[in-house]
TrEMBL record:
Keywords: Dioxygenase, Oxidoreductase. SUPFAM superfamilies: Aromatic compound dioxygenase. The keyword Iron-sulfur does not apply. Residues 71-99 form the Intradiol ring-cleavage dioxygenases domain. The keyword Transport does not apply. Belongs to the intradiol ring-cleavage dioxygenase family. It comes from the Bacteria. This is Catechol 1,2-dioxygenase. The lineage of its organism: Bacteria, Bacillati, Actinomycetota, Actinomycetes, Kitasatosporales.
């Protein structure tokens, strides 16, 4: 098989998914030490997103549609110690539920879902934030949209309808969080009050992934932030699990792995 052909990529996609799932083992049983809940990466990750400031703004248009959202928090170890220098690699959809940056080949598993906008810049709403000396971070973005999970009229769509489940995913923001001495965490922020949270087809969403937002409508608060309209804030702290003395660090570098 020639590398790059669809014959080659199908087993490779399966291998990637299987190896990706193995990352989750490092975050099994979060109840034992308060580690954050691990979620799968999914097919929309694109390696190589630019580093933004801290506080920073995800790459987007000056008049990006959607509600302005400020996400902030602290990255800590399970010991409670803040982690300076942790990297949060964020990716999300636009307000209309579409990802940027995927090539048609990478978008193959999403075929027919209309969740990719091929006209947007590659790293639109994708960026890396490095935590400060206290382990803190903050970035500005927009509230993501609803992402389709089944092709309209497909067998899966009919099945979900029969089961009374949603044919789209709850709003979410993806992130990989890495730090030298800790296992990589893969995470998704979900939004409290999103009616899809209790209807998604992929299984129950862990409560610690669901975050409240606060709406700020007082114009004086916009001005203090340098904004021109209402905005929401959301706090998301991450807790990473240290790599034990007898454990092997990830056998491959994440970005190199995902380029395959
Ligand atoms: Fe997603």
């Amino acid at each position: 098989m020639r590398q790059g052909s669809s014959c080659w990529r199908r087993p490779q996609l399966l291998a990637n998914r299987t190896m990706e799932a193995s990352y989750g083992r490092a975050y099994a049983h979060p109840e034992k030490d308060g580690a954050s809940t691990w979620m799968a990466t999914g097919p929309a990750y694109v390696p190589g997103a630019p580093q933004i400031g801290n506080p920073g703004v995800l790459p987007m248009a000056p008049d990006e549609p959607g509600e302005t959202l400020l996400v902030s928090g602290t990255v800590r170890s399970t010991s409670g110690k803040p982690l300076p220098g942790a990297v949060i690699d964020v990716w999300q959809t636009t307000a209309d539920g579409r990802y940027a940056g995927l090539t048609p080949e990478q978008a193959g598993p999403l075929d027919g879902l209309d969740v990719v906008d091929f006209d947007l810049p590659k790293y639109h709403l994708r960026g890396k934030i490095v935590t400060d000396a206290e382990g803190r971070y903050e970035y500005r973005t927009v509230v993501p949209g609803v992402e389709a999970a089944a092709v309209p009229g497909s067998l899966l769509d009919d099945l979900l309808l029969m089961l009374g489940r949603a044919n789209s995913r709850a709003r979410h923001i993806h992130a990989h969080i890495t730090h030298d001495d800790h296992h990589m965490l893969t995470h998704q922020i979900h939004f409290d009050g999103d009616p899809l949270i209790d209807a998604v087809s992929e299984g129950a969403i862990a409560r610690d992934l669901i975050h409240k937002t606060e709406l700020h409508e007082d114009p004086s608060t916009w001005e203090a932030r340098g904004l021109t309209g209402p905005y929401r804030t959301l706090t998301c702290d991450y807790t990473l699990r240290p790599i034990g003395f007898d454990e092997v660090k990830d056998p491959y570098h994440l970005e190199g792995f995902w380029k395959k």
